[in-house]
Amino acid sequence: MPAKTCLRKKYDELYAKGQTIINEFNPCGKDGCHFNFKLHCCGGCRHLGDNGCKVKALYCKLWLCSRAADYQKEAVIQLNKLLKEADKFNLLYIRGSKRTTLKRRLYASNK
Fold it and tell me: What does pTM read for this prediction?
């Protein structure tokens, strides 16, 4: 299997696992930062649309701000495991879409 295909699958797998954790703990939901603070993590991001993020941004999916992390300790523990795995594959790019992250990753490995 080509490296690009393996990386895409790993990216999607980690993203889905992160989404499951976010769904379970809902750190940004009704009681979380997004609704309770004027400035939130996604503020100013070019990928932010009216209904949330418009891209699959793995780093954003696996990271919690300090506000959310303070009251979602178990979510942080679970997300950190995924962050470490994503880091092993060099799949972390802050506010980077899947396409941009994979492009950077493949470019870096071809140097």
Answer: 0.83
